[in-house]
Amino acid sequence: xxxxxxxxxxxxxxxxxxxxxxxxxxxxxxxxxxxxxxxxxxxxxxxxxxxxxxxxxxxxxxxxxxxxxxxxxxxxxxxxxxxxxxxxxxxxxxxxxxxxxxxxxxxxxxxxxxxxxxxxxxxxxxxxxxxxxxxxxxxxxxxxxxxxxxxxxxxxxxxxxxxxxxxxxxxxxxxxxxxxxxxxxxxxxxxxxxxxxxxxxxxxxxxxxxxxxxxxxxxxxxxxxxxxxxxxxxxxxxxxxxxxxxxxxxxxxxxxxxxxxxxxxxxxxxxxxxxxxxxxxxxxxxxx
Length: 288
Hints:
With 288 residues, the protein is α/β, with parallel strands linked by helices. The protein contains eleven helices and seven strands. It has a five-stranded parallel sheet with strand order 3-2-4-5-6. The protein has a two-stranded parallel sheet with strand order 1-7. The relative contact order is 0.13.
């Protein structure tokens, strides 16, 4: 009830615009009192908390370009990303053995990560029935220890899978760890559903195939120029100062300026969408 009362404080103009953004992004609108924690209600609450129209308008503009990849969409994006990998590595053929492992940094091995779920999706019936991918041989590996043995056959490829690449740092750590095992970089490929361009640029220093279904740019720095760029950067700084955002997460981790939510919101995304603080309590895409 509290959120419903507060939501009514938003002007009709803002409620209409928010509804239009939700419809454009194909997000479900649940605005009734018994759905107070719905995305729509939480988003309205966050816009109300911003409490200054210039800053509200900036967040609304960013939301128009916001990408939310929901779990049921993962297989579709995975199929697309794998097909792009095949185009980037024409040496892969129907006789190539494709070993799949989650892309995870050494310090996170053994932890529950979204990359583990993505690796498992290579068993998806939809993927196995795809008219292109059904011709290829995929095998999911649980441990890295025997990689040199599996890749002894030069016609074998290790595919490191993840749902999202932000700065590229995690991918780099994983890659360097595997290369220490005397695995040839030519036998490694990285597949991600979504990737920030800055992360792809960062990984380009390695001669490795990186394919993604969707490439994303920085939400402010890559979309505005001149005075508008300076103005929007300052507005976001003021928003984050009010929220007391830690330095390493300002403008998203690594200044990624991401506008992305996967099954979980990466910390590369602008904190205005996921952080909850004492004076900004309700995030639309919280990182629980």
